User: Which sequence fits this backbone?
């Protein structure tokens, strides 16, 4: 089977009349062009040129093949132009997934700015607590918190560390005081969080200091937990970027290093080459990294 690149060189030699002129036009060595013509003739089992002192002259077979190859060149040029145009355009859709609290505080402002710059890109949002499968195409981009790394089949980078600590309402603090450290949690009503967040190292460490008898309940999401804490039910663990913005809540103690999680921006190796996804990833990474201090708490 012949190589298309050899056909491209064949057409160049046919048009220029010599390997020297074709090599100069293509910025290749004459030796390379001559060798590739020999390879092409061998692959096809045909003599394409008559080598004369005046140059390379097409044989009858060569003229027939050159005529058949011209549409291939035209189609290849059309393909290159189409690919170039697709590379420049950012029109299309991006499906972004993140937990609700992360989406509300961190992803939504990036989406708004990105849409102002690229109005032809439609963003589909998923702020559920479910972990969508990027490899199966359930989303294009994910912003996820993790104790460790990411699936090696995905592509992404760690953009920030997220500090967590204990929060309670001002009303709760007035009635019961606040724990000065994790060790004091055993003396307070604690509201746990369920789901995947409960499985994280920081959540397990936090709950290990609570008295099981005094656990006042379990919330299924961070947003649900926030509402329960605002009502004064007890003390619970929240990410600092969220808890610090709740006017009805107060920090109980500085974020312990044991409760730090990592924030990742993730896509697939294939999706990262899609221009609109690459542009969104670049903007999101820059904006999230700029907030590292706030995210660390």
Assistant:
């Amino acid at each position: 089977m012949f190589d298309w690149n050899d056909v491209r060189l064949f057409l160049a030699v046919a048009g220029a009349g010599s390997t020297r002129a074709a090599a100069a036009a293509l910025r290749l060595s004459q030796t390379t062009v001559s060798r590739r013509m020999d390879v092409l003739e061998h692959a096809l089992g045909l003599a394409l040129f008559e080598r004369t002192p005046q140059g390379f002259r097409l044989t009858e077979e060569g003229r027939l093949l050159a005529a058949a190859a011209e549409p291939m060149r035209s189609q290849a040029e059309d393909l290159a132009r189409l690919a170039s145009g697709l590379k420049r355009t950012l029109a299309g859709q991006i499906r972004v997934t993140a937990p609700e609290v992360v989406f509300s505080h961190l992803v939504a402002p990036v989406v708004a700015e990105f849409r102002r710059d690229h109005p032809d890109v439609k963003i589909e949002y998923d702020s559920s607590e479910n972990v969508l499968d990027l490899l199966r195409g359930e989303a294009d981009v994910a912003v996820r918190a993790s104790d460790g790394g990411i699936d090696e089949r995905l592509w992404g980078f760690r953009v920030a560390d997220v500090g967590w600590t204990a929060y309670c309402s001002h009303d709760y603090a007035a009635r019961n005081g606040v724990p000065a450290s994790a060790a004091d949690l055993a003396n307070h009503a604690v509201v746990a969080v369920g789901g995947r967040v409960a499985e994280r190292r920081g959540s397990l460490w936090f709950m290990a200091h609570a008295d099981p008898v005094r656990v006042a309940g379990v919330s299924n999401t961070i947003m649900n937990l926030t509402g329960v804490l605002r009502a004064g039910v007890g003390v619970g663990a929240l990410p600092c970027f969220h808890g610090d913005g709740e006017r009805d809540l107060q920090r109980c103690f500085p974020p312990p290093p044991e409760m730090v999680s990592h924030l990742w921006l993730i896509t697939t190796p294939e999706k990262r080459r899609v221009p609109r996804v690459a542009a969104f990833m670049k903007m999101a990474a820059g904006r999230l990294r700029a907030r590292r201090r706030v995210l660390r708490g």
